[in-house]
Design a protein that fits this description.
This protein is α/β, with parallel strands linked by helices. Helix content is about 40%, strand content about 20%. It binds S-adenosylmethionine (SAM).
């Protein structure tokens, strides 16, 4: 059975209780966050950029971005209200520069061309329609904006065992895309220049960076049907 958003909601509502204390924070999440932040700093230094973090969870990564890049404005979007609310104190501490919003990666609640960077850390394998999520990430990026996405690397035997066997046993039919599949999805969505790097270790991960070289096209759900527009008399 394929993984769906109801399963994701159940899984993360349950996991939210001890999410910030789980061992994966040290093994996988923190190294992934560090890799993305280093890349943002290399590309943008501390310019006043707008960053969207998709699948932001309890806001650990959004807060780390802000600590490392004090001029950045950060938005976090996550499907599961339980994850967002577990980070309430954290969102409060950074309220002036970090904004959490509940929403779906496949239907991002932001206008076309809104961000300089879209990040997505350790969340992508939960999306049932990964092509739609990448298309949405492209849509909300400005021209020449950058997608920086990290997920488990499953193209070698150890990563395959960790992600396709162990993680899939715990989480169900989640899907860790191969490096080739990421390139394909990015190409289809309108990204140009791409760069991928594998970080090895107990929980190896793949970093994909892609540049939005084509102008974003508004998604159908952001186009108004004129017949639905009511003008006050
Ligand atoms: C393993 S957590 C990663 C959280 C955070 N990015 C980090 O690195 O600490 C995955 C997150 O993805 C979220 N998620 C799952 N499906 C989603 C979807 N369709 N749209 C947005 N977020 C989703 C989950 O609710 C969860 O908070």
């Amino acid at each position: 059975m394929s993984y769906d958003k109801t399963q994701a909601t159940h899984e993360f509502t349950r996991w939210s209780e001890n999410y910030d204390r789980c061992i994966l924070q040290t093994l996988l999440f923190q190294p992934a966050h560090r890799a993305i932040i280093k890349r943002i700093q290399a590309r943008f230094a501390d310019r006043p950029i707008r960053i969207l973090d998709v699948g932001c969870g309890t806001g650990v990564f959004a807060a780390r971005i802000r600590d490392a890049l004090p001029s950045a404005q950060v938005w976090g979007v996550d499907l599961v209200s339980g994850m967002l609310s577990k980070g309430a104190a954290r969102w409060q501490r950074h309220a002036e520069c970090v904004t959490p919003i509940q929403g779906d990666s496949e239907r991002l609640p932001f206008a076309t061309g809104s961000f300089d960077i879209v990040t997505c850390a350790n969340s992508f394998h939960h999306y049932p329609h990964q092509d739609r999520a990448v298309a949405e990430m492209h849509r909300v990026l400005k021209l020449n904006g950058r997608l920086m996405l990290v997920d488990g690397y499953r193209d070698r035997p150890w990563g395959w065992f960790i992600y396709d066997v162990c993680v899939a046993h715990v989480e169900g039919a989640v899907h860790h895309a191969s490096a080739g599949r990421f390139r394909e999805l990015c190409g289809q969505a309108g990204f140009g220049q791409m760069d991928q790097r594998v970080y090895r270790g107990l929980a190896p991960f793949l970093f994909t960076e892609a540049v939005a070289e084509k102008s974003p096209v508004p998604a159908p759900h952001f186009r108004l049907d004129p017949s639905e527009v009511k003008v006050a008399a």
